[in-house]
Automatic annotation (TrEMBL):
GO molecular function per UniProt: acetate-CoA ligase activity; AMP binding; ATP binding
Name of this protein: Acetyl-coenzyme A synthetase
UniProt-listed PANTHER family: ACETYL-COENZYME A SYNTHETASE
Class of enzymatic activity (EC top level): ligase
Keywords: ATP-binding, Ligase, Nucleotide-binding
Annotated catalysed reactions: acetate + ATP + CoA = acetyl-CoA + AMP + diphosphate
Length: 689
């Protein structure tokens, strides 16, 4: 008999006798046993994971449809997963439960209310200003979603229309997303930190005719005049022949504490005003629109770390099933007692799957945070964890690195006794950051769960499965249930057992992307042409002798130094283990003799202290941890690193700086947080030898 749902989540805590073993110098793990987690519960053994994993691959249709049966479908077809990854055999496509009919918003709201969760808090909203707080129950959330669905209907939005959402992390953001899902409209959320140009381009590409925004918000001390940026974007849209017909603007500023000077006052016409729009549409009917399994649920543009962002399309039944299940398994979700907090913005996939759909489908109580970890100071995260007794936290290596640069008491002054799982996503976790989370934040009583996945994958691909498998020091991960990763060598041949290669997946899973919006050819070219028959992630990974995967970064970031394949992530991790280093980024630059050579950009807190002595210390660490071949020719001081708004280092730009490319030729910089850092790096570039 198949055991499927909740087997892993209900396994008891892992006994954390370390399985530490050496795999790659830079992935240096912490020593056992004192550095490793120690839970005193009976540990059922990894066979539980392996058994279930085998079942998920042997009978994928039964496995996934059993999970989907926990959710509400108005009609269920008898189809499971259908897909083709090999364009030589016909069109590339993925379908799950094709012909079934469901609605994701209904599953997030009504389904939970029918289960008796109506009065349960869905979101605890923490504003940017410490003290701004509101909560909303499932019943209240549903009322607001229905109200807003009526507004959309009243504006003529129909099933299949695209709606642009440009909002900060306020409750109106999930309300707007769910209202779209309720009426079968396709949402396209654009991060509220993006410029008018970036917004206009995404509105044009997605074909959105409706835009939902707010008057403005505060990010730390900075006032962001969102409405006026949105207005500018609409002007740009006109100039590029795309007309957005309807705008709805929520008045957010009147309910928050001002934390800085307002740069301007928003101009909101009566017909744009959210409250007026709600009042005007009271009589409009907006019933749940029952959608086909494969109708699009949303479009989301990727972060743009490797090039121009791609409009990734996710559909109803498959995405819902994967979001629901991966939320449970990875976070060991206990909806009855958990207070869960995903710090990612809904402008990114993590916010979609693990701040909105995953937690709501599971009836969780979540914190929704409008602010930033540094405001009013770096203790804010831990203050919120203490205030709401957060039990599961989902953050990113970049946030962790910024917090660990500050004194430990900023964490330790706050209670974290309920905290059981700390997840991270976005980039490889370097061992120092892992150690800090484990020791300072988790006090060795939390599982540190690295999650590897992408906008395209919709849900986790590799995670630690901490409830079933002994915790590793560092981020050695196992495939998520139903996910079949492979490593390919340079010739596209499968690597068996231990090895380092390109990470691909050889079969479909329900929550994966279906296409790139308006560009199915690019979808095939980018993800399925490089290795026919496989989904190409673009990332490299190592697999150790126990089958754990260690993601080493983008394959484009691998370098070949005198015939030795080196990963930038490994060298970065080695540099970051120097006590003065806050952050490091390594890229390959061309070299007459060696072919390529590493070039490092390093941030330390105090500019004046960047000296030859420190550079030599870093070089010595790399020499010792990896070998002389990995020592960069140049280690350049970087006051800041170019990052996407989701906090990822954009190495394609650093590569150009290292190669001495003209500043004007740096490519798409629209997704960067701060374009000025590039100029600084460029002018301070040492002359290449
Ligand atoms: P684009 O595809 O436009 O270049 P992007 O790849 O940065 O942007 P995302 O989908 O936000 O867009 O990020 C996915 C990528 O983030 C992965 O391909 C991988 O490189 C990196 N990543 C995410 N999580 C991890 C992790 N846990 N360990 C290592 N890398 C990770
Ligand atoms: Mg990508």
């Amino acid at each position: 008999m198949l055991r499927t749902l909740r087997l892993i989540p209900t396994l008891s805590r892992a006994n954390m006798h370390s399985t530490a073993h050496n795999f790659g110098a830079a992935q240096a793990r912490l020593k056992e046993p004192e550095d490793c987690l120690a839970f005193n519960a009976e540990f059922p053994g990894p066979c539980h994971y392996h058994q279930l994993y085998e079942e998920s691959l042997a009978n994928p249709d039964t496995f996934w449809t059993n999970i989907a049966s926990q959710l509400h479908f108005k009609h269920k077809s008898d189809k499971g997963l259908e897909y083709n990854f090999d364009q030589r055999k016909g069109d590339v496509f993925v379908k799950f439960m094709d012909g079934s009919i469901t609605n994701v918003a209904f599953n997030c709201l009504e389904r939970n209310i029918f289960r008796g969760l109506g009065d349960k808090i869905a979101y605890k909203w923490e504003g940017n200003a410490d003290g701004d707080y509101e909560s909303i129950t499932y019943n209240e959330l549903r009322t607001k979603v229905v109200e807003f669905s009526r507004v959309l209907k009243n504006r003529g939005v129909k099933k299949g229309d695209v709606v642009g959402i440009y909002l900060p992390m306020i409750v109106e953001l999930p309300i707007a997303m769910l209202a779209c899902a309720r009426i079968g409209a396709i949402h396209s959320v654009v991060f509220a930190g993006f410029s008018s140009n970036a917004l206009a381009e995404r509105l044009r590409q997605s074909g959105a005719k409706t835009l939902i925004t707010c008057d403005g918000f505060y990010r730390g001390k900075k006032h962001i005049p969102l409405k006026s940026i949105a207005d500018e974007a609409l002007m740009i849209c006109k100039n590029i022949n795309h007309s957005v017909e309807s705008t709805i603007c929520f008045e957010h500023l009147k309910r928050v504490t001002a934390t800085g000077a307002a740069s301007e006052v928003a101009v909101i016409n009566d017909e744009e005003n959210w409250d007026n729009a709600v009042a005007d549409s009271k009589e409009v009917s907006a019933p749940v629109e029952w959608c086909q399994a494969e109708d699009p649920l949303f479009i989301l543009y990727t972060s743009g770390s490797t090039g121009a962002p791609k409009g990734i399309v996710h559909t109803n039944a498959g995405y819902m099933t994967s979001a629901y299940y991966s939320m449970q398994v990875t976070f060991d979700a206990k909806p009855e007692t958990d207070v869960y907090w995903c710090m990612a913005d809904c402008g990114w996939i993590t916010g979609h799957t693990y701040a909105v759909y995953g937690p709501l489908l599971n009836g969780m109580t979540s914190v929704l945070f409008e602010g930033i970890p540094s405001f009013p100071d770096y203790s804010r995260t831990w203050k919120i964890v203490d205030k709401h007794q957060v039990s599961k936290l989902y953050t990113s290596p970049t946030a962790v690195r910024s917090m660990m640069a500050h004194p430990d008491h900023m964490v330790k002054d706050y209670e974290r006794s309920k905290l059981k799982v700390i997840g991270t996503v976005g980039e490889p976790m370097n061992p120092c950051a892992w150690k800090w989370l484990n020791e300072v934040v988790g006090e060795k009583a939390c599982a540190i769960v690295d999650t590897y996945w992408q906008t395209e994958t919709g849900c986790h691909l590799l995670t630690s499965h901490h409830t079933a498998v002994p915790q590793q020091s560092g981020c050695g991960n196992l495939p998520f249930l139903g996910i079949s990763p492979q490593l390919l060598d340079d010739n596209g041949k499968k690597i068996r057992g231990e090895g380092h290669g390109t990470l691909v997946v050889d079969r479909a899973w329900p929550g994966m992307m279906r296409t790139i919006w308006g560009d199915h050819k690019r979808f095939i070219d980018a993800y399925f042409s490089p290795y026919p028959g496989y989904y190409f992630t673009g990332d490299g990974a190592k697999r150790d002798d126990e089958g754990h995967y260690w993601v080493t970064g983008r394959v484009d970031d691998l370098m070949n130094v005198s015939g030795h394949l080196l990963s930038t992530a490994e060298i970065e991790a080695a540099i970051a283990s120097h006590p003065m280093v806050v952050e490091a980024a390594v890229v390959a630059t061309s070299h007459k003799v060696k072919g390529q050579t590493p070039y490092a950009f390093v941030t330390i807190p105090d500019t004046a202290k960047f000296s030859d002595k420190i550079v030599n210390e870093m070089k010595a660490i790399i020499r010792k941890k990896i070998g002389p071949i990995a020592v960069p020719d140049i280690i350049q001081f970087a006051p800041g690193l170019p990052k996407t708004r989701s906090g990822k280092i954009v190495r394609r730009i650093l590569r150009k700086v290292a190669d001495g490319e003209k500043e004007a030729n740096l490519g798409d910089t629209s997704t960067l947080t701060d374009e000025t850092v590039i100029h600084e790096l460029w002018v301070n570039r040492p002359i290449k030898l």
